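Hey, I'm writing a tutorial for new members on how sequence and structure tokens pair up, and I'd like a real worked example in the thread rather than a made-up one. If someone can provide the structure for the chain below, I'll link this post from the tutorial.
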Amino acid sequence: MLREVKPEEMRVSGWVISFRARVTLALFGFFVLANALFGTIAYRTLAQASERAAEAIAERVVEDAADLYLSLAGATGETRMERLAQQVGFELLEYVDGELREGSVEELVELGLYEGWMPLAQHRLLDGREGIRVYTATSMGRWQYITAYRRLPDGDILGVQIPLQAGAAAIQTSDLIELMGFAILVGGALSLVLASMAGRALTSPIRALQVASEAVGAGNLQLQLPSTRADEFGAVFRAFNRMVSRVRRARRQLVRTSRRTQAIMDEAAVGMIALDPAGRVIQVNPRAEDMLGSEVFVGRSVPGEGPLGEALSGWLAHFLAGSADQADVE
């Protein structure tokens, strides 16, 4: 049954993939997956860090703006929001009863680029609670913002929009992303090298065993595999060496037996020929060659020349074609 079992070959577009290639690809895929997972986690961590940095900036800005708000109550010329925005360096919005009343950039307010009402959930949280800050993620076009809201002493609500890019700049995200990209590229290259080395380490013992088996099959019974390995392949190599040693001893015993048989046949006074199941000559003594009147070659059929050779070869052909274990003829 075992001789009928054939290992399946992996093929891709008609090309056979070797065991070493499969091991290398599997290991490379594992390393690449690990790098991709690391890159994803690192990128999400940086994104979250950028958002937290933007919230910290928004908290500081909205507190500074709240502290300056009452001091600019009598401002003339520029609006109070414009003056506050110049002081804190970011765009500001003012809400009354949840409705947008004023912004530091009036043109943007008039164009309707800002939401006319602040989010209901944040408005309820700030209702009657002076000094409390809440945050929400907003967007304007492709720009993402963290908006912080704070209720002022006069009951109005101050809003400040901080771009996420500001948070990213605060933690130097671009440098970190470049460093992370370089690390991923280096990791991919190292993954390929490590996968190749691991594939070679796994397949080289199997290749050595294959070459040794072919050499033994060709008749080289002096071959020995290194048996000093401490891993599983060491046990396989030692078992292979024991098998070769047994085959070598059996071959020596067979040679001795064959020589002894040949010596006995050479001294016999009668003609003797030993044949294999296919009728080819294995051993022959000189007396048989004298009787046949021609030279008999080992590995060939009995010659059919001469009266005796013709009769003997015909009788052998009839005997080998039958099913009898032995037969006599005179």
